[in-house]
Give the backbone structure.
Amino acid sequence: MRKVSIIIPHYKTWRWTAICINAFKKYGTLIDSEIIVCNNSPGHPSIKCLTDTELGNGVKIVDGRKDFHSHGMGYDIAFSHADGDWIFTSETDSFPIRHGWFEPYIIASVDHDLIGPMVPQSSGSYIHPAGAIVSRKVLDKAKEWRDAHKDWVFVPGAAVTLGVASWPYHVVMRDSSVPPDNEQMRKDVELWRDCGSWQEMRSFDHDSLQSYTTRTGITNFDPVPGVPKYIKIGYEAGQWLSYFAKSGGFRVMEAPCNIEWMPGLHGKKAAQSTVFDCFRHVWCGTVSNLPNDISASVRVFKLQQQENEFAKLEASVRRKILELEATWDKTATQ
């Protein structure tokens, strides 16, 4: 491992981004490294938690896309600016918690190409990107595969057209099957065609579809009734890359991960998880700042976790961020 590029998507959160960057700077990586933040909410003032404080010193900040703020796309945009031979992926609510945290990753990289926590999700179990590291050679090979399989495209608008918008999965269809008179679908196709390895949705030709359940362990999917060219399936950011690495013969390590559940929600809502006993992910931490996207009870719990971590920052940094937040709140109400 020559150099590691740490890539992090930011989205409308002042405090979690500050917590995350502060931890990476505080605990280091033991080897040459860089931090790249993709601002997935360009135009939103929350990025000032870095640009207007000392936390942003030495951090490369790049703009994401206003029309597509998925953290998977954020990873891909940040990756395009990275020069490390290994890429470490984090979210703003995930961060190292002690010195020496990166050593287990360095040791594991000798015998593995993708290292990270195997996490169960509603869409299937996979190596989750919050606390994962991947060799650039995996990403290079993934790009080759994607370039060779462009006929299957993720098209969210198709779910509405097909009358299956209530299904808990997205719709993937052949590019040639997109109705020429459906402008929204055409826009979706062009948007998702730009996706990279962390948000890939062009995952199906006939051969790979036949081996889908073997590769992924997911069995609860069906073709759309009466429309054999369409497939009902959903991927989270980083999920396809995890499956690709496994099915492509790369050496994948399921890093030890301890999941702590919220009180009364065991197996349903994680409070936090810890990889290698040294890298923490506070699930739904970022989204807790978006009140319409999370239940009230969970939001209260998550905001308290945020405050606990925020209190660990230097007083001068906390004070500056609070001042910035207050200024934005006054402006936002005018």
Notes: The chain has a mean pLDDT of 86.
